[in-house]
Write a structure and sequence with these properties.
Blueprint lengths: L2 H8 L2 H12 L25 H12 L11 E11 L10 E3 H13 L5 E11 L1 H12 L5 E9 L3 H5 L4 E4 L4 E4 L12 H20 L5 H8 L11 E4 L1 H6 L4 E2 L2 H23 L1
Parallel strand pairs: 1-2, 1-3, 3-4, 4-5, 5-8
Antiparallel strand pairs: 6-7
Protein name: ATP-dependent Clp protease proteolytic subunit ClpP
Family: Belongs to the peptidase S14 family.
GO molecular function, one term: ATP-dependent peptidase activity
């Protein structure tokens, strides 16, 4: 069959109509894939709910608002047990001395801070840590007023007397007793000598920074019959003033008033030096 004959064969009506349909019909469209429902955009976080903020404040601080005040007085609190080189159990309320020392350094360097108020309610704790805090407080160049609320026991006594002026609440107590090892037995003379030297450091510091003598303090420290299963003395409020440990019986208002007086005197002294 020639080429012309094959062309004529294809152009016959059945084939011609079929070819025309094939050319004229559009190609089948692919099945459109249905996109899944798009995830709605996340709502931008709005302002914090004031009710939630108020409830959080009550839960954490026990009050509805916290007063914001720029003050020239730095307040440092020593609460619970003074924690030193050994970490205490988590259920103990502690004050870590490595947290207090940088605060005191910052207060000394800050020119806006003119005075420091130290509030104590402590049962004592690590002897070396307590003495370190007491030495830092006593070496500040700015006026320091200490206030014993509740209790300033054991190694809290040197901290309480380390300031420029000291107060104790009328119902607050201070327990004076010798240094001892908890749960350990003194088995060699060197251990006893070490404790005796440490005791001398504590007694000497207290005598230098208060009006009590070393002899009278040791007498209170070794007194028998007052503390159960221990020797020492429990001093309450006015008795601490009578013995010369604390300067005055008073509360927060008295302590702040005295601190403001000391700061005013310090300002006058600086002005006189400048003149």
């Amino acid at each position: 069959m020639s080429k012309q004959q094959f062309t004529d064969y294809l152009n016959r009506p059945p084939f011609a109509s079929a070819m025309t349909k094939m050319q004229s019909s559009p190609p089948p469209s692919p099945v459109e894939e249905q996109e899944p429902n798009p995830t709605p955009p996340a709502e931008a976080p709005g302002p914090e709910d004031p009710k939630k903020k108020l409830l959080d404040s009550i839960t954490q601080l026990g009050q509805t608002n916290v007063p914001q005040l720029e003050s020239n007085i730095y307040c440092m609190s020593i609460i619970g047990q003074v924690e030193g080189h050994i970490q205490l159990p988590p259920q103990n309320k502690t004050t870590k001395y490595e947290h207090l020392i940088p605060q005191l350094v910052a207060a000394e360097q800050n020119s806006k801070i003119e005075g420091v108020l130290v509030i104590l309610n402590t049962v004592g704790g690590d002897v070396e840590a307590g003495l370190a805090i007491a030495e830092m407080v006593s070496s500040l160049s700015k006026p320091v007023v200490t206030l014993v609320l509740g209790g300033g026991h054991s190694i809290g006594v040197p901290i309480a007397v380390a300031g420029t002026y000291s107060f104790i609440a009328e119902t607050a107590t201070m327990t004076i007793h010798p240094i001892r090892l908890t749960g350990l037995v003194i088995s060699v003379p060197q251990t006893f000598e070490y404790l005796d030297k440490m005791q001398d450091r504590v007694v000497s510091f207290i005598a230098r920074h208060s009006k009590i003598s070393e002899q009278q303090f040791r007498e209170l420290m070794t007194r028998t019959g007052e503390l159960t299963r221990d020797i020492g003395t429990n001093v309450i409020g006015a008795d601490a003033v009578k013995y010369g440990l604390i300067d005055e019986v008073g509360g927060l208002g008295s302590a702040l008033k005295k601190l403001n007086e000391l700061m005013e005197n310090a300002r006058k002294g600086k002005d006189e030096v400048l003149q």
